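G., the chain you wanted modeled:
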Amino acid sequence: MNVLAVIPVKPLGRALGRLSAVLTRPERRELQAAMLMDLLDACTICPALGGVLVVTSDPAAAELAAGYGAAVLPDHDPPQGMNPAVAVGQAHAAARGYDAVLVLTADLPLAEPEDLAAVVAAAPTGTPRVVIVPSRHGTGTNALLIGPPAAIPTRLGPDSRALHRAEAAAAGAHLAEIDLPWVGLDIDTPEDLGLLLAAERPSRAQDACRRMRLAGRLEAGIGS
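Predicted structure as tokens:
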């Protein structure tokens, strides 16, 4: 199965708004870039993927992606959100004959190539097919395989796991759901940062957090 990874990337420094209490905008930009590089590290060496596409309107993110050999397409101008950005990638994959897309949020610094390969391997036989990897809280979607690429629209956002289940059912798609703890950890909140710092799996994002001395800042915040 020829699978294209599709990663929608918000403008650097404008994402991670829920971390504004502990990170300045330049720090959020640094962390966002580090997480993107972590994910690109995993995608570009994963043998189960036939290519990587980043959809973004941010020149710095586009330059980072191109440096990894990923394809880059511009997001809507102005950006319309993650799902319209993913739709750009789905159309690109369909036009180029890919069998499926693996949609990944850009804040998955601990995902490894074997995690991504596991998602592809979990794809049920038959067409169409959908694989959901939920967020650690169980209600979100951190990775989503869709085959063929436009079999269902994405519904990333609140309660997306249930919404993707419903889309799969409406499309008559074969559905699989797998829990992958490292993929399940997306970085949205100070609690997520604490889990990232404590993780035994090294990452550029973890290194960035240590340079920012976030452990002490998080402890101070919890104790206040």
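The longest strand covers residues 3-9.

Shout if anything looks off.
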